[in-house]
Amino acid sequence: MALLATAALLVAPPLAALGPADAAELPLKRVVLSSAGLAQFIHAGTVTGGATVELPVRLDQVDDLLKSLTVFDRAGGIGAVSLPGKTPLVELFRDLPFGPEALASPSALLNALVGTEVEIAGPVNATGRVFRVEPEETTLPNGGGTVTRHRLALMTERGLVTAVLEDLTTLRFTDLETRVQIERALAGQSQNRAKDRRTLSIGFLGDGDRPVGLGYVVAAPVWKTSYRLVLPKEGGRARLQGWAVVENLTGGDWKDVELVLISGNPVALKQQLYTAFYTDRIEVPVTTAARVLPRTDDGDAAESRPGPRAKAAGTALARREMMPAPQTGQVQRLMAPAMPAPAAAPPPAEADAIAGAAQAAEAEEAATQLLYRFPAKVTVATGHTVMVPFVDREVTASRTWLYQPEVSARRPLAALRLRNDGDASLPAGIVTAFDGGADGAANFVGDAQLPLLPRGTFKYVTFALDAKTDIRREDQGVRRTTLGKAVDGTLTLTTRSRRTVGYEITPPADEDREIVIEEARADGWSPAEGSRGVEETPTRLRLAVKAPKGQTTKASLVLERTDRQTVVLTDYAPEEILARIRGLENETPAVKETVLRLGALVGEINRARAERSRLDAERKRIGEDQERLRRNLQSVGASSDLGRRYVDTLKSQEDRLAEISRTEQTLDAEMASKRQAAVDAARQLKL
């Protein structure tokens, strides 16, 4: 675990002014919540050298705590950092002569400790070793039913003595070790009563009182953003007020803590550091001395031989134990960032104006995240939710209408073009929009979503559908022109595609509209050369159109795309060569002549191919008929009249097969010649 503070966020607040902390724990002083679902907690106070600080933590957060715990000490050292195991009761009862089920009842405990010496008092007084406790049914008088009692049997010097366990006034284990074991088990049960919590103990070395702190990062609910936006009546300034929704689900109260909110996307990892893992080791045989058998003096040359080696009893597993934190003599310095001064109070509000935030957060933008520090301390009870303002200012804004055909095919959306001209980015969040009415009151007009708005950039936020404006959209399709360039059989094709989308905009009869048409941007497409008023974003194309009241305005968005492809015509079949060069926009008379030649060659090849297919089919039919004739010939014999007819037919078929083979060779040569002629024509093509 980390023991040094190295980052700006891993620092404790100023401790010089803090009062002494409770001897058992350090109070919570700072909470840093991240939009990535993490929270950093800083505890700080004063401890005495040699003291141990206890930190209760939820069981599901122990892994994160072991990963991120950082201790701050001005002038002392860190001692042991320890906590109970993940399953402390399992480890406790592993070393006891009985299991946790033995604590279910006195009879269960006695049966688990059979043979242990006890001393009993009551109707029966005796000292002896536990033999057994057995249940027995006792009938109550006057039909009162039955009751289960337990009879204890002891082996004493006088013999076997029995007594009803429920009637005894005293039962004492005479063995001190047994009493200690039972006490350990009961204490362990008491300490483990909170199943989902663990207590971390941190020892502080050194002399005297001094301020210390500790921090850790664990999983926490994501803080949410909620904005209020008052639309501008005239001009270009809108009122923006941002609130953060924060939840305390830690199981402990936050009392007068410093609150910091972080908007970012840091890498967040987790690991099971609180789970014991074992690794296999290679087992080697135990080395023992060889047994020696002295040789008898009888002239025998045979040598003594060693006996078999002993085998290992089982496989041992290496267990990783949590080691206490090393002591350090280095003085740990506490870095304390200056707290922002309280924000100035806003001017008096009108009766129906939205109230300003008394103490909005101070924003600080880092390389990868945005921090909001609140000047006033907050108090949040466990399980409660609190809203705190983190921004309250005016932003540059202009009202417009945004047409998104995938949202509404005929209606634009009332929108606001927001520019972040502040000193820090604005995190994404939901926006509730208000408009000032004739009486000065703020009236709800709709909800919107504000994406992450970096400083110096603008975004559109849409909050309502404009039912007064009608837009007709017509996709007029794509027109393509293909130009070719051919040199030595290599053809380069340039295809220019042009897509036109037309719009007819009919605004209200008494209001002008400035419509921003928004279309999805497809890969490779861009505004046509000469297009004006088209704004390009990584994913959208926007066209601004002014539509005067009382008339229909037409507009169009023209997009272009250019694709290039290079092919080696001599690698293709004649019909593919013909398909490549046919229909080019820059076709010359020479190209037309080549197209005619290739068309004729392709026609001749297709005819030869069809004749080749017909001959293949005929050969197949002859082969099937010959198979039938040979079977019949075996049945009737070659010397019979029918057999001689079969033989004559087979001879004529063999002659036809030979003729087919010769014709196929001629066709193959003809097709090869035509293909070569097509390749030569493609190589000679100049374009």
UniProtKB/TrEMBL annotation:
Does the keyword Signal belong to this entry? Answer: yes
Region Disordered, as annotated, extends over 295-316
User: Where would one find the signal peptide in this protein?
Assistant: 1-23
Task: Tell me the keywords, alphabetical order.
Answer: Signal
Task: Say if the entry is tagged with keyword Signal.
Answer: yes
User: Which superkingdom?
Assistant: Bacteria
Matching entries from PANTHER family are given as: DUF4139 DOMAIN-CONTAINING PROTEIN
Q: What is this protein called?
A: Uncharacterized protein
Q: Identify the species of origin.
A: Rhodoplanes elegans
